[in-house]
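Because showing beats explaining, we let one protein speak, sequence and backbone structure tokens together, and leave readers to judge.
___
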Amino acid sequence: MSFFERFIRPALQEFGDRPALVHQGRVQTYAEMNRSFNRVGNALRELGLDIGDHSAILQHNSDRWVECEGGQAKFGIATVPLNTRLSPQEVAWHLNDS
């Protein structure tokens, strides 16, 4: 069982309208996060990704990063987190190696 299935999915179902994430004054509830996860996961599926595929995230730490990672996890897509300070050559290496 994945971390998402064991811990995140039950929290999304149980805590609905409670605050789940606060970033720079923006509060998102568990229900809002669940909708964001679905939006990201469905968009990745439309692009042809499926369970077991890998998808990279290259962006600064933010609530959007959490939405992207959560959407990938919910739909069984592995996250390849990339640091924004990597050089283009380092990014290419990570993408080719994942």
The chain is about 55% helix and 20% strand. The radius of gyration is 14 Å.
